[in-house]
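Sequence design from tokenized structure. All designs in this work follow the same two-part layout: the structure record, then the generated sequence. An example of the structure record is given first.
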């Protein structure tokens, strides 16, 4: 068994000796693999991990290239100064485009990226001060500490230093508080919002970061080629970047380099040898590459990197373990302790309509500190819809919701979470490929503030240490500490529900919303859950509980609210609810017959 660290070392040695032993043609392939690899690293963050498909990355490469070419030739600026200007221009364009296009969902997002990618491409071709379709020539080379980066061999070290730095920064980011938020973008956005993550802002940040990497690639490209025209920045190249990323493994940073190297090497080889078979005319390499990519993706849908590490029996070094805990100081509490009986949550005549469907109608109740309130009713009664109204997933159509004295009726989920409300879900929402410990750590998002810069440069170690310590404490509290370092997807459904509770508790809430937490639990597990909830109640936490197991509910809760067809039909102590004829006819009686 080998570790990924060894693969990185071997690859670094290969790059170090390549300019001394390989012919110029192979050096060119290595250089282009580095240039395109930078763009693919951004696409791993944006598409493979963030779940946002973009066909416009080549346009951002063009932004970096054209900005530097124009300023360094016409205005005679230093190439290094043009790097910062090019990145700044790419950031401004990404902010403008991202704020518009990232709100779109489904196929509309990739279609919109095609539109603005084509727009930037044709804009460059029609602006005469940028040389039109003829482009800009005589772009100066880059000087690096007195060394002119002019030859392909010098450029190899230059470009791969940037690639190595990008890999290190991106890896640090993904293994941080902000990185866990990025990982939630693909299949866990509702959950992330409930944990306090501003999902639209995270999407925009990732989009901007990927555009920066593309712009840096364009800057190096233009000073390597010393010439630029619109051709390398069109839609075809954006599609190539996506192919490279997906082929290597869109969810893995090393896959960006692997896929890029394979595609570039294959294309060069096919361009050289196919004309010997089919004659000089025709772009046969494109056809052959398309067939090969389809075949490879059919056999390895997650890309080649996961297959490679499986074949080589590679094991990644653990990055999120108890050994990383170096600071004993616990995370600061976000919420003060509330006195038992103090009102936490108040619903006043709340209703929710979906078109012509009245899902919740004129519902009023309150949850107090130090109590467990049960919300019961038959399937379709409106319980989960009510949960979504309280946690900001769906705004109420009418009425008012107050939490800790603040009107939250129209707040977003992440804003509600920031006030001290946390929840679990009827259908478990976890990131199955992450460890149990990492899933719990998502709940601590609001309890730290380290952003992208600190995370990328690994300056958030103290906070990460505190997050790990707190996450382990929550796992011990719910009895899952022995599963801390296995993938969350390998847990049983019952343990996954308990894991959701640990994640919610890690946010240090004042009010906890539990949606069917006992579903899938065995008797002993239900007893342990009841003990945990009773302890939380004694600590002054408010709990709103939706559950179908009546024995579990009646033995645990302080009060009960009963709903049917979106309306509240009863409220009171468990004994009173059990003897309420309306409730018996609507719900309890039907379960006993």
């Amino acid at each position: 068994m080998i570790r990924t660290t060894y693969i990185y070392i071997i690859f670094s040695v290969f790059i170090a000796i390549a300019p001394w032993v390989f012919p110029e043609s192979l050096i060119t392939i290595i250089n282009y693999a580095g240039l395109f690899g930078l763009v693919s690293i951004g696409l791993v963050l944006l598409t493979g991990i963030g779940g946002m498909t973009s066909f416009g990355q080549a346009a951002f490469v063009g932004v970096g290239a054209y900005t530097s070419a124009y300023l360094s030739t016409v205005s005679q600026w230093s190439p290094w100064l043009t790097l910062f200007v090019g990145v700044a221009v790419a950031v401004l364009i990404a902010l403008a485009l991202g704020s518009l296009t990232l709100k779109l969902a489904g196929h509309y997002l990739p279609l919109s990226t095609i539109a603005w990618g084509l727009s930037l491409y044709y804009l460059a071709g029609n602006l005469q001060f940028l040389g039109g379709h003829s482009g800009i020539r005589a772009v100066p080379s880059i000087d690096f500490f007195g060394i002119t980066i002019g030859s392909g061999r010098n450029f190899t070290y230059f470009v791969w230093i940037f690639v190595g730095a990008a890999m290190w920064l991106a890896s640090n980011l993904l293994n941080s508080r902000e990185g866990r938020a990025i990982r939630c973008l693909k299949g866990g956005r509702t959950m992330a919002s409930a944990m306090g993550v501003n999902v639209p802002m995270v999407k925009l940040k990732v989009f901007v970061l990927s555009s920066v990497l593309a712009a840096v690639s364009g800057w190096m490209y233009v000073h390597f080629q010393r010439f630029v025209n619109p051709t390398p920045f069109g839609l075809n190249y954006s599609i190539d970047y996506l192919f490279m990323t997906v082929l290597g493994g869109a969810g893995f940073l090393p896959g960006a380099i692997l896929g890029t190297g394979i595609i570039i090497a294959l294309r060069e080889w096919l361009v050289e040898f196919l004309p010997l078979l089919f004659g000089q005319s025709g772009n046969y390499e494109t056809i052959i590459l398309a067939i090969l990519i389809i075949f490879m993706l059919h056999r390895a849908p997650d890309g080649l990197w996961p297959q490679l590490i499986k074949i080589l029996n590679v094991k990644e070094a653990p990055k999120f373990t108890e050994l990383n805990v170096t600071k004993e100081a616990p995370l600061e509490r976000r919420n003060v302790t509330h006195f038992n009986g103090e009102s936490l949550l108040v619903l006043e005549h709340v209703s929710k309509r979906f078109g012509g469907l009245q899902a919740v109608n004129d519902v009023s109740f309150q949850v107090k500190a130090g109590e467990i309130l049960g919300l019961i009713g038959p399937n379709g009664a409106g319980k989960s819809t009510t949960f979504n109204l309280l946690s900001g997933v769906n705004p109420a159509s009418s009425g008012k919701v107050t939490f800790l004295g603040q009107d939250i009726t129209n707040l977003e989920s992440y804003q509600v979470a920031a006030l001290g409300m946390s929840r679990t879900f009827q259908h478990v929402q976890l990131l199955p490929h992450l460890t149990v410990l990492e899933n719990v750590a998502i709940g601590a998002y609001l309890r730290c503030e380290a952003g992208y810069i600190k995370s990328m440069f690994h300056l958030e170690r103290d906070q990460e240490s505190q997050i790990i310590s707190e996450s382990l404490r929550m796992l011990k509290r719910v009895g899952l500490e022995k599963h801390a370092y296995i993938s969350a997807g390998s847990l049983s459904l019952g343990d996954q529900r308990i894991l959701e509770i640990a994640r919610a508790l890690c946010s240090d809430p004042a009010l906890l919303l539990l949606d069917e937490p006992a579903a899938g639990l065995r008797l002993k597990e239900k007893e342990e859950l009841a003990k945990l909830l009773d302890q939380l109640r004694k600590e002054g936490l408010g709990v709103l509980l939706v559950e179908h197991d009546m024995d579990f509910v009646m033995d645990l809760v302080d009060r009960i609210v009963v709903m049917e067809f979106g309306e509240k039909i009863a409220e009171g102590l468990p004994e009173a609810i059990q003897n309420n004829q309306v409730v018996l006819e609507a719900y309890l009686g039907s379960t006993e017959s």
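The chain has two domains: 2-232, 343-592. We note this feature because it recurs in several other targets discussed in the main text.
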